[in-house]
Design brief:
This protein is an alpha/beta fold. The strands form 3 sheets. Strands 1, 2, 3, 6, 10 and 11 form a 6-stranded mixed sheet that branches.
Length: 448
């Protein structure tokens, strides 16, 4: 494991104890042992040499290569089994084709928790309880919230394998240093800083929500960060489950808070109405250079891949966490849940090994890979990249404290989360009435 120097001027803060305990359906599991427990067939308990395990997911390229490298070192070589990860840009459609064709992978890694629950509802996925896993221990390792995302009718079908951090604001370091700007700790400070920038002749914000057919999603992330802090995790959870409607005062107030940035005089490059027409991948360009178009940009940790070539983190641009609101913090995250379609001793042992602290930590040592382990026993020291390391520190703290929440729009029904919610944000930017638009979103929620 390689360690890194800890970031940053501005970053203010900063596995699966799969205890295969007891017997599964076929009695193949053994008693817990250590962090991960030991499934029969693993760690010398029984021979799984030569057994194959197919794993299918969305990550490709360097991220897919990193997953296979970890599988080879931590599972294939010690056990003699042969597991292989396959990534696809068309994962969502391809995995369903395989399932419908009666040829599912042994394990699929879904980026949408709702898809895991959907597979459980259809009777395709196998519950962790039926495989003999100890849910209480999994909750201890990943936090109760993440484990709950894969729950269906009292049983659990999803195993967290990766998260990424969304609550970040990127900024132009040279101008911040030249003007003596301080990193804001509260949302009020953030608005005040924006006003000061305008007074100094700068435009505070570069915001773009364009994303082809998915235009609007970056604005929903803003809303989610604000709801999580301003209304708290319980209201956030109620919003996701439709117990708190879109036209509830708490959600309307979040929009009003967001609008302090959107509608601030001179706050946004191009103005509020231009936001949906600016591709989110181009937006970070605006904060780079000696005469930047704007000074701040809110986006998840993956956006480092879209800064202009040659721009250097720590010199040209830095990052700080989305500030607190009314004293409340939180971490907006996205990520993956693995679900099992074929229960074998080799599959159980693979899950135990792949989500164990050592294998999870090892994924942080690959260049260009921004995967953050949801295993709370890992630390920021697992990651070579400074941004990923500090993002991990914030996410792990939030998971331990119970203040991390998954991207709400990814948990809502598709008609809402990737439909009317995105559309409402776009129409709002272009001059629509936010109260009427939030009512429209609520009315689009599918009847049960």
């Amino acid at each position: 494991m390689r360690h890194t120097k800890r970031l940053v001027a501005a970053m203010a803060a900063a596995a699966l104890a799969l205890t295969a305990c007891g017997n599964g359906d076929d009695g193949d599991t053994a008693a817990p042992e250590g962090e991960g427990g030991t499934a029969e067939g693993g760690e010398g308990d029984s021979d799984i040499s030569g057994e194959e395990v197919s794993v299918f997911g969305a990550p490709t390229s360097v991220e897919g290569d990193a997953i296979n490298a970890v599988i080879q070192e931590y599972f294939n070589e010690p056990t003699g089994a042969n597991a292989f990860y396959e990534g696809s840009d068309s994962f969502e459609s391809q995995v369903q084709i395989r399932i419908d064709g009666g040829n599912p992978p042994d394990i699929a890694i879904y980026p949408q928790p709702g898809a895991v629950v959907d597979q459980a509802e259809q009777g395709n996925a196998i519950s962790l309880e039926s495989m003999g896993f100890d849910i209480a221990e999994l909750e201890e390792r990943f936090g109760e919230y993440l484990i709950s995302l894969g729950e269906y009718e009292g049983e659990h079908y999803g195993i967290p394998t990766n998260v990424n951090y969304k609550s970040l604001i990127w900024y132009n370091i040279p101008v911040f240093e030249a003007q003596g700007y301080e990193i804001p700790e509260t949302y009020e400070d953030l608005v005040a800083l924006s006003e000061q920038m305008v007074a100094d002749g700068y435009t505070p914000w570069a915001i773009g929500t364009g994303s082809d057919d998915a235009t609007g999603w970056p604005a929903t992330d803003w809303m989610e960060d604000i709801v999580l802090r301003q209304a708290g995790p319980d209201t956030y959870d109620g919003w996701v489950s439709n117990e708190v409607p879109f036209d509830d005062p708490a959600i309307v107030e979040a929009a009003e808070t967001f609008d302090q940035i959107l509608d601030g005089e001179g706050f946004v490059a191009g103005g509020k109405s231009a936001i949906p027409d600016i591709d989110f991948r181009d937006a970070p360009d605006g904060i780079i250079g000696d005469e930047p178009q704007a000074l701040m940009h809110r986006q998840a940790s993956f956006i480092v891949n879209f800064f202009p070539e040659g721009a250097e983190f720590g010199t040209d641009y830095g990052v700080f966490p989305f500030p607190t609101i009314d004293g409340n913090d939180g971490a907006l995250i996205a990520g993956e849940l693995a679900t099992v379609f074929n229960d074998t001793p080799a599959v159980r042992e693979f899950i135990r090994v792949f989500t164990d602290t050592d294998a999870q930590c090892a994924q942080g040592t690959f260049e260009g890979v921004a995967r953050i382990s949801p295993n709370v026993n890992t630390t920021a020291e697992c990651y070579d990249d400074e941004v990923v390391a500090t993002s991990a520190e914030n996410v792990l703290t939030a998971l331990r404290e119970g203040t991390a929440r998954f991207d709400a729009s990814d948990l809502m029904p598709p008609q809402v989360g990737s439909g009317s919610f995105w559309t409402a944000m776009n129409e709002w930017m272009r001059g629509g009435d936010i109260n009427a638009l939030l009512t429209d979103v609520q009315n689009s929620w599918p009847a049960e």
